[in-house]
Amino acid sequence: MLLLLPSSPPLAALPPATCRRRAPARLRGRPARSSADDPPPPQRAPLVLGMDAGGEADWRELDAKVNKYPSVREFRCIGEGGEQTEAFARAMLAAAASCAAPDEPLRREEVQVRPSRTGKYVAVSVFVTVTSFEQVKATYDLMKADKRLRYFI
Fold it and tell me: pLDDT, tens digit, for every residue of 37-92?
């Protein structure tokens, strides 16, 4: 709503309103694409971290740069739910517990089991104190051996 005061000029005397949108921050400073014939920008390959992505040597190198041991590590895995929920959760807990430090048993607050909304899948998170890369790798190897596993982080 436009409020005109008695001393305001008549509407016809006002310059036409212009609405100028600012370009999004990610596009500012970039030249506009001039033609549909220009090739699209190169697509980057998705970054995948894990044993299958670049092999064990690459994973060891990244682990040495990022992780310090001993540390508490979360192993999160997603697998089949439904009738398999309890069996899958127990298998993932056993995999994590077998590689954990023997003097530190798993406590109830270090384990989370969450079924999906539909119950088709279940997410299991286990917090374990690990002392080396070999423990982490052994845990992932045991988890990968279970056929009910769909995804792990």
Answer: 666 655 554 333 444 556 778 888 888 888 888 888 899 999 989 898 999 999 99
* 94 contacts 143 by C-beta, under 8 angstroms: no
- Distance between CA atoms of 102 and 84, rounded to whole angstroms? 28
Distance CA 137, CA 152 (A): 13
Radius of gyration of the chain (CA): 28
Task: Spell out the domains of the chain, with CATH numbers in brackets.
Answer: 70-152 (3.30.70.260)
Tell me what pLDDT residue 114 has.
94
Q: Which of 129, 126, 138 is nearest to 88 (CA)?
A: 126
Q: State the Cα torsion 84-89-90-93 to the nearest 10°.
A: 160
Total H helices, total E strands in the chain = 4, 4
- Secondary structure of residue 17 in the 3-state scheme: coil
Q: How many angstroms separate the CA atoms of 139 and 153, rounded?
A: 12
In 3-state terms, what secondary structure has residue 127? strand
